[in-house]
Amino acid sequence: MVWFWVLVLFTANLKLGLAHIHGGEQPLAKINILQTTVALHESASISAEPVLLGLKGEDTEWITVNFVNPKPSLDDWVGVFSPAKFDPSACPPVNERKKQLPYICSAPIKYKYANESSSSYAKTGTASLRFQLINQRADFSFALFSGGLSDPILVAISNPISFTNPKAPLYPRLAQGKSWNEMTVTWTSGYDIDEAVPFVEWGRKGDLQVRSPAGTLTFKQNSMCGSPASTVGWRDPGFIHTSFLKDLWPNFIYMYRIGHLLYNGSVVWSKTYSFKSSPYPGQNSLQRVVIFGDMGKAERDGSNEYSDYQPGSLNTTDQLIRDLDNIDIVFHIGDLTYSNGYISQWDQFTAQVEPIASTVPYMIASGNHERDWPNSGSFYDTPDSGGECGVPAETMFYYPAENKAKFWYSTDYGLFHFCIADSEHDWREGSEQYRFIEQCLASVDRHRQPWLIFSAHRVLGYSSNDWYSQEGAYEEPMGRDGLQKLWQKYKVDIAFYGHVHNYERSCPIYQNQCVNKEKNHYSGTVNGTIHVVVGGAGSHLSKFSQLIPYWSIYRDYDFGFVKLTAFNQSSLLFEYKKSRDGKVYDSFTISRDYKDVLACVHDGCEPTTLAS
């Protein structure tokens, strides 16, 4: 009987988790592309212009697509395909018994309904659409379909168009290296090592520039763990290069540009970028950190938006770009692209964040939509990654982990010490990751780095999200069981989480008890950790429970992000800003001295002796 009720409770919790997982559907997954039938009509046509893109070095261009359909309907749509040519010979059979090959076996990279810009399309059969394309290492074509998304009928195919150099080095993303004075530059190109030698030319602004080599990685279709990543969602990711810029002087502006030395002696260059090097650990100066989760990507041309999958993504991105002069480092704590197995979306995400990631370190954490896949070693046996099982995230971005497959690491930025956990691998007491978390928290010198931050994707602390409240614990199951004694022992200031798509701040809390009655200003001894859910950066929002727990100080059902400002070793400002206007809607300050960190608190006292 006991085992029966255990099974009932487990099943109930699993259903609650799955209800959250499937709260939004990747727009490309709506297209039943393998069932496409061909009915090319001699009176139907579709064309795209301009034909040659990037003539002035642009990596993004707007395209006009004109089309005519003699038998129009409201569910006609236009898909963007890259590479431009359909190759049925590469498709696996749809019907194994009949060995029937589909005509198209790769999903488009984006799509729009044909009547989006013309309400009269269903009557006239004539319309035009505007698409924004980024350079993705291959040519493009546009296809007109009838039959809707579930039963596509190919009516017309456009002329191919392409960028002047599809292989160009693009979308640099910075990240902290394994030491405070090292910056890494990662980018994507179409050049393998047998075609060109990748490097970064860099130096302090106004000084002599030097060159540092880069390593090159990629991944193949057989690296994917399942569909759609291994089937209709597959697209060649190109080559991902990383260079390590070492021995940086603190607080200097560095200029850099990416190069590929071709074997004929010429060099293909990127644009020139700049970044400010990190402060020395413990440096007493103004330092500003932005933290958020679950942003995803969206299309500025409005394509793929019919499911309202990530409605806040562009607002968050644009607010950060506008305030970039006042940001030093960014943490995106999981659920980066929501590509869910559609690999083309990784290019589109890196293009979207490029103005940010090319200027300040863009540090990431692993979420369920990056890692989770059944029987792949993830802690949660769910299909949330769409078969990616962590491979694109681990390859497309650098992070200073000892093992890229184990997505936990520490990093320093001036007065801050960050411990980034991986909630998609076992974090419980006795696990390898638990030992890392304790080592990370224990290693910080709080005299030099007073602000200790813990972060993970799933809510290992506190959240009054509706499905957590139904489970009764207001947390990820088993979330804080073993971790809270580490947060208390090492006096973690703030713990951040994503996964839940809203904003919520707790009181300073330990063992479900608020240890401070203040709400807007905290001073003196560190009695407990403040837990913050900041997963509302872009994806569809998550509802709160109707009951507001006593520990919940502020809740917001909206899109936003957090900014931390350390003025010095004794003063920290916390701000929650909404993505739609960039204004502050919740804030608090912390003021304290070193002796307050050393002070003995419940379950956080150093051992003493009576010996003299």
UniProtKB/TrEMBL annotation:
InterPro entries: Calcineurin-like_PHP, Fn3_PAP, Metallo-depent_PP-like, MPP_PAP, PAPs_C, PAPs_N, Purple_acid_Pase-like_N. Residues 528-587 form the Purple acid phosphatase C-terminal domain. Residues 1-19 form the signal peptide. Homodimer. Belongs to the metallophosphoesterase superfamily. Purple acid phosphatase family. Its EC number is 3.1.3.2. GO terms for cellular component: extracellular region. Residues 46-165 form the Purple acid phosphatase Fn3-like domain. This is Purple acid phosphatase. The lineage of its organism: Eukaryota, Viridiplantae, Streptophyta, Embryophyta, Tracheophyta. GO terms for molecular function: acid phosphatase activity; metal ion binding. It comes from Gossypium aridum (American cotton). Keywords: Glycoprotein, Hydrolase, Iron, Secreted, Signal, Zinc. It comes from the Eukaryota. CDD domains: MPP_PAPs (cd00839). It catalyses: a phosphate monoester + H2O = an alcohol + phosphate. Its cofactor is Fe cation; Zn(2+). Pfam families: fn3_PAP (PF17808), Metallophos (PF00149), Metallophos_C (PF14008), Pur_ac_phosph_N (PF16656). Residues 288-503 form the Calcineurin-like phosphoesterase domain. Residues 172-276 form the Purple acid phosphatase N-terminal domain. It is found in: Secreted.
